[in-house]
Amino acid sequence: MYKLLKLIIPVIFLLLITDKLFSQSTDVFTDVEIRTNSGIFSLKNDMVLIREEPHLSFYYEDENETAEVYLKLNPQIADSVVSIEPTADFEMLDSLRKEDELLYRMKVSFKRLSESNFLRFSFLIGASNKEREIVRLFPYAEISASLNIQERDLFVGEEKTYELYTDLPENIKLQPSWESDGNIKYRLTRRSNQIMLHLLPEKIGKHTFQYNVKLNRPYFDANGKIQYEYPLDTLQFEIKESRLAFLNIDQEEIILETNQRYKSQDIQIDHHRNLKLHKTYRIEEKEQPGGALIAELFTQDQLSNGRMLCVLRVYDYHRLSDGYLYIKDGDEARFLTNFSIRHNTKVSKVSIQRNGGEWTENLSVYPGEIIDVKVEGDALDRAGLRFEGLFRIRTDSTAGNENRQVFTLNIPLSIYKKKIEMLNYGEPTGHQLTVQEYQRPKELNFVNIDYGAGKMPVTDITTTIFYDKPVKDIVFSFDDTTIDSLGDLYGKQYLFMEVQVVNNKRQLIDMKEVENITICPGGNSLRKNYYDKKDCQNSNINLNNILRTKTHELGEWSRIEITIGHVSNKYHERIYQQKIEIILSRKSTFDIDISFPAGLLTMTQGEDEISSLGGISLAAIAQFTFYKSEMIEKAKPYRAGIGILAFDAFNFSESATRYLALVALGSVYPINRSNSKLNFPLHIGGGYRIDNGKWFFLVGPGIRISF
Question: Do residues 59 and 36 lie in contact, with contact meaning Cβ atoms separated by under 8 Å?
């Protein structure tokens, strides 16, 4: 009983752990679904463990499969904002948006699913984007592959090529180098969009050939197991001896240097009874007489291993796919052989291409970008080209041959190297990519201004500012945390500033130009540690520190005109500029006004009658002038004030009633133009007579002359 419990308890524990693992998704999502034309796949139902990590498996039929993705949120974080990090593995067709309280949806188009490794979705959770949730993906495909072989007879040394029929050729892993099962050499290559199986018999006799096609993306067999190899049907061949004896040499590839064209080298070739010692044979490309001379073979010694030591002199290039080489005695073909005579790997030209652009030999690259690199030269199909420090490299096999190779490179955002060497089997080729920092003009929303109303981005200022309070200072500050963001880099910002100060008569008071303002990205920028910070100036700029006339010394209706923008010769793109005009406006002014009221009508306290029209009086009024809002020095047509009135001051007749009074007057000016020298205001108000101590009311016109 105890032994039985020891066996049962671990099994129950394992089942509980497995059930929990496959029934729960993540702390953020209760489930993630991928919907394609082939079906609906979810973390709950289609999760597989790869390298002990959960993956969402889904079936695809197209290399660039289009899918809808649904994210079901955990109710505990229903209020959180979810965003997605872009990658080169897929393209967003519909942005990630919230469908309801617990559901997000997006539409994506995957790219080259058969070649994409470590495929995943990376989601950022919360407004600060500090929490990251990874959903790993595991695409798989059903595979069918077959060979249609009618002729089952093979000849030693004669290469046969058969097309491998498959519904997803991109998922077939190629095998460009020869391998052997003892009787037949074989390899798998791509020709355009066809997969070709090459067979090269080595020994005569009946032979059973079995080949397993290796896959980039697996399939699930009948038992639900993941399989990365697909077995082809077993093939039966009869290998016959060639009409001409085929002699193998111990090297499949001979390097012919252009500057060492006639250099000889030792090789070993199969011994044959008809191959004579100490004799020179011609090697030509045709069986008939008159073929081009490819090489010469001199038989030197017979070896104990059943081979013959020979001296080979090569004169021209040859590829295995070009056909057989004929070993001739004079013009008569005696034997067959085949080997490659090729250039040494040489890189002569490297060019890059960005999405939608032309090929260029300017090898400057930028962090975070995806580029195509075209390498041109000789014998490149045998080269082991790699780019130092880069791991996400894809090779376009359809565009590659011995003279050209095309790579797709993903330059990491956090790359620290300034130069990326191109290596061939670890050795420098003399070609390199230069990593440049981005230098793109960023919209000026990272520049803030504070003139007394609080800090705000300069891009929020779209009209003239009328400010009716004292301007103690104008301060420009720079929010370097908003320049670079994840996947959107701009680099150092080179700015200038021009300041002009004019008074209310449009006379220039002060002018200043500030050049070489360099703002370096900071905050969460992945490149902040790699920028050259020698010229960075992220500190505030106070105008009072650079102007001779301080802002708090300026009179009313003065103007401060500021232009801030990018230095044009630093960029090759459209730059940004912002113009700011601050007017020191006033709602009202207080001054002394001298006017000449005439024909005033008065009514004195305690009297029932209105006085007769008075003569020309003299009034000295301390009054307020009111201005129209958001208009420059445009006064409203009324004023108010208090002062002294000399009634009938200019009436010298004996009947004149002259007296002094303290008055409060409101005045209306019918001619409301700032350049008017003569005006006829209408006065209304009241006052206190100093001679008799009585209160009175008055109304009447006046004359105002300004100089």
Answer: yes
d(CA 363, CA 374): 11
Going by DSSP bridges, is the β-strand pair 577-584/465-467 parallel, antiparallel, or unpaired?
parallel
Nearest to 275 by CA among 295, 257, 298: 298
Cβ–Cβ under 8 Å, residues 102 and 57: no
Please tell me the distance from the alpha carbon of residue 120 to that of residue 133, in angstroms, as a whole number.
10
Position 344: which residue type?
N
- pLDDT of the residue at 140: 93
The C-alpha angle with vertex 131 and arms to 130 and 137, in degrees rounded to 5, equals: 130
pTM given for the model = 0.50
d(CA 206, CA 90): 49
pLDDT digit string, tens, across residues 275-329: 999 999 999 999 888 889 999 999 999 998 889 999 999 988 888 878 889 999 9
The residue among 368, 388, 489 whose CA lies nearest residue 439 is 489
Q: Is 287 helix (H, G, I), strand (E, B) or coil?
A: coil
Distance (Å, whole) CA 553 – CA 92: 56
Average pLDDT over residues 364-392: 85
Q: How far is CA 253 from CA 248, 318, 339, 595, in A?
A: 12, 10, 6, 113
Please give the DSSP secondary-structure letter assigned to residue 681: -
Q: Quote the CA–CA distance of 619 and 662 in Å, as a whole number.
A: 10
Hunting for tokens 């061949």 — which residue is that? Answer: 237
Say which residues have a Cβ less than 8 Å from residue 95's Cβ, sequence separation at least 6: 106
301-305: long-range contacts at Cβ-Cβ below 8 A with a sequence spacing of 24 or more?
Answer: 301/277, 302/271, 302/277, 303/268, 303/271, 305/268
